[in-house]
Design a protein that fits this description.
about 75% helix; globular; binds phenylalanine; binds sodium ion; symport; transmembrane helix
Length: about 450
């Protein structure tokens, strides 16, 4: 209980269950919740999209998270070797480790642009601290953001700084300290978000924002929007690239996989919804465009910080906390490739972290240029579905909407059709009806749902 944990502060508090939840929420809660969720919701018309996203979290994300954690704990090794190990024990094709390979590549591609956005947050710490938001109009705040995007050198500088932070922690293998910090910083971020929601309530548009978010209008939902909701569920929960598998290998046997996974899903979803409730009242109150795209929070939150009492302080703190949230997620994106280089190529940790980080950083330059010099360059624009998508958009699209759901689909098929049922009953230790519910979901519902969304989008293309 909380009381015994409190009196035990030190040892008891940092039980492995708690450590798992910290690492998993550290990975899950990040830019996906605060930057991406509001803008994809705005682009896809609100309520109906949010409903599909919530459905994807509960009916697809949660069961797959449980499957990943289960596979990790059962295999007890790094993701690639866990899959190989389980496959070998059961005499199955070891090429199942391809799931791990998708994860390694997806993490690498995601981090390249994730770090660029992390860099925006770094840049906004300075803007907030120097009072640049105070009393500004929506136009002035918009100007500030456009001039940041128009300046490749500044973007490069902050992207480099963010990437260096990630590489540093991965190279030194010192995650534990940062993860403990998460147990203080994440609640602090949550409180600050609540403060912004409190401010948002005074704008007079809170009701409109709430109905935008929670009153589904299905005429606004497109097939492509459903794919984005599905992909975002994977992205926000850090699923489909074996991150949760890696963490699961550290989870003690007597701890409930279902309960801990549910906790992570609830925290992650709570942060995203709070971000939505903080941002949309400001959008409507200032006559901004909900579908403004990736810049949405950087054009709205500064308005709130510019108008609320002690806004410079709150704004500075907020963007610092956002950097921490993004940092812990960034680490979990780089970790798989570094582990892979260590295991498969026999490289040491420092070299592989520096090497992988460097290549990722270099790839990030393409995303930076997509925001300015190459903003009109749509390399795959001849494909209807990818019309007008810059390199940055394409990286986001392929990783979140294709690679992660595909990775998750393979995890579901592996758990549902390959692993022995008995092993999974043992690991999950659920009541019979609950186990069956999970099992039917990973066996049938998840593969059919993901498959259907894919096929519909291909046909539409
Ligand atoms: N879940 C993280 C976020 O919401 C991003 C992430 C995706 C991290 C996949 C790891 C793996 O920001
Ligand atoms: Na998230």
């Amino acid at each position: 209980s909380a009381a015994t944990e409190g009196s035990n502060a030190g040892r008891g508090l940092w039980s492995s269950r708690f450590a798992f939840i910290l690492a998993a929420t550290g990975s899950a809660v990040g830019l996906g919740n605060i930057w991406k969720f509001p803008y994809v919701t705005g682009e896809n018309g609100g309520g109906a999209f949010v409903l599909v996203y919530l459905l994807c979290i509960a009916a697809i994300g949660l069961p797959i998270m449980m499957a990943e954690v289960l596979i990790g704990r059962r295999g007890g090794r790094s993701p690639v070797n866990s899959l190989k190990q389980i496959a070998k024990q059961q005499g199955i094709n070891p090429s199942w480790r391809a799931v791990g390979a998708i994860g390694v590549i997806a993490g690498f591609l995601i981090l390249s642009f994730y770090s660029v956005i992390g860099g925006w947050a770094v840049s906004y710490v300075g803007s907030a601290a120097s009072g640049q938001f105070t009393g500004q109009s929506a136009e002035a705040i918009g100007e500030l953001f456009s001039s940041l995007l128009a300046d490749p050198m500044t973007l490069l500088m902050w992207h480099s700084l963010f990437m260096a932070l990630v590489v540093l922690v991965v190279a030194k293998g010192v995650r534990a300290g940062l993860e403990r910090a998460v147990s203080i910083l994440m609640p602090a971020l949550f409180l600050l978000l609540l403060a912004v929601v409190g401010f948002a309530m005074t704008t007079g548009e809170f009701g409109r924002a709430a109905s935008f978010l929670f009153q589904p209008d299905f005429s606004k939902l497109t097939t492509a929007g459903v794919l984005v909701a599905l992909g975002h569920a994977f992205f926000t929960l850090s699923l489909g690239m074996a991150v949760m598998m890696a963490y699961g290998s550290y989870l003690p046997k007597d701890i409930s996989i279902a309960k801990t996974s549910i906790a992570v899903c609830i925290i992650d979803t709570g942060v995203a919804l709070l971000a939505g409730l903080a941002i949309f009242p400001i959008v409507f109150a200032n006559g901004l465009e909900p579908g403004a795209g990736p810049g949405l929070i950087f054009q709205t939150l500064p308005l709130a910080f510019g108008q609320m009492p002690m806004g410079s302080l709150f704004g500075t703190l907020f963007f610092i906390l956002l950097i921490f949230a993004a940092w812990t997620s960034g680490i979990s994106l780089l970790e798989p490739i570094v582990e892979w280089l260590e295991e498969q190529k026999g490289m040491n940790r420092t070299t592989s972290a520096l090497g992988a980080g460097f290549v990722c950083w270099a790839l990030g330059i393409a995303s930076i240029l997509s925001l300015n010099l190459w903003s009109g360059f749509a390399p795959l624009g001849w494909i209807t579905m990818l019309e007008g998508k810059t390199i940055f958009d394409l990286l986001d699209f392929f990783t979140a909407n294709i690679m992660l759901p595909l990775g998750g689909l393979l995890v579901a098929v592996f758990a549902g059709w390959i692993m022995s049922r008995k092993a999974m009953e043992e690991e999950l230790a659920l009541s019979k009806p609950m186990f069956n519910l999970w099992y039917v979901t990973v066996r049938f519902i998840t593969p059919v749902a993901v498959g259907t969304v894919f096929v519909y989008n291909l046909v539409g293309a």
